[in-house]
Amino acid sequence: MTPVSLCVCKPLLFFGLITTAVPAGATNEHIDLLRPEGSQPMVMSITADDTIHLTSLEQTMAAEQLLQAEQEAQQTAAQTVQAETQESARQKPPYRELSIPYPKDDPLIQKYKEEYLSAYGQRWLKEVLEAGAPYRAYIHDQVKKMGLPPELQYLPIVESNYKNTAVSKSGATGMWQFMENSMHPFLDKNEWIDERYDPWKSTDAALRKLKDNYTMFEDWPLAIAAYNCGAGALSRALEDAETKTFWYLSEHNLIKNESMNYVPKLLVIADIITNSEWYGVELPDIDESAAPDFEEIVLNGSVNLHLLAAHEETGGSEILFLNPAVRSGITPPGSAYRLRIPQGTRTAVETTLKEQNISIYNDVYTVQKGDTLWGISRRYGVTVSDLCMANNLTETGILSIGHTIVVPIIN
What we know:
Blueprint: E1 12-14, E2 17-19, E3 21-22, H1 28-34, E4 42-46, E5 52-56, H2 57-91, H3 107-117, H4 119-131, H5 133-145, H6 155-160, H7 199-217, H8 220-229, H9 231-239, H10 246-251, H11 257-274, H12 276-279, E6 294-299, H13 305-309, H14 318-322, E7 337-342, H15 346-355, E8 363-366, H16 373-380, H17 384-391, E9 404-407
Antiparallel strand pairs: 1-2, 3-5, 4-5, 6-7, 8-9
């Protein structure tokens, strides 16, 4: 028998496995010669470079079993994910299109959808909706009553985050951000009241204004944009537009950036709230119980609400919460003013107003040159303290010529 020349590589020990590399073409007989006496059966494998490797049969079987277990685990995990995905798809509610159509591929739409669906955006939106709980039911009902698109109920989020005390750098005021030059004839403002701060009256005013805008432009995105930039400015922008749509104005930079972003913000917010379950976002629904329950009484003169709120039986500080338009805390004198009071407190309020002598301040006086609180008090037979209390003044305060103050005439 002709001897066979073998090039035997040095045996290597890896993690308890004996691996010996031999040239291709070696026979089992040759392999048996390479296996130490008394050792376990070996498994031969050939690599891409035709090198033969020998591995312990026991270790090879263990590795194959481990590999098989891993493959089975991966397959089980994949099946679980697939089942969960299918179950989620079955439980997912259908997507509801908004009543105001919009291009979903618009860059600003995509930008704000990504922003508001982020973890921070979802948290922010939830907090804003919770803050607006006292007003959301009323706004929703008024939008429905006036036959307007439901998306408009979310405009206070874009405007003020439902804050009726909000005042912008430009002077826009209240939940719906009315400017003084745009509030008439919808709202009143004088030295006693500013109805822009009243969330109920300003809601009615804003919806009427939006409805007027739609009558003018016959398109809701344009009507909404006009609420932000003004009907005049929008009309001028449309004169230069080949296509009379908001999206054309936005694409061609024919309106200011603020107005350009205004409409997409509203529509994305409305979309996410309307389809919160579809997006997998948890947001608070309208809570009817969070809306304040109130009634109204008619005043024949001026009332100091701070004094009225000092009596818990009248509803306490809720009197001030229900009447935020009364900026000084003194209701307008000389006219019938409708005051909101907590439901069920009418008798207590009327009794308190009468018995505590704080009900009626039925005279007004316009400050003249040289007037002082002491002089006015002597003229009307009241005390300086009464004047200060009725007008939220201090005894050392300086009166402004032309300023109107109320004079308490005690019943």
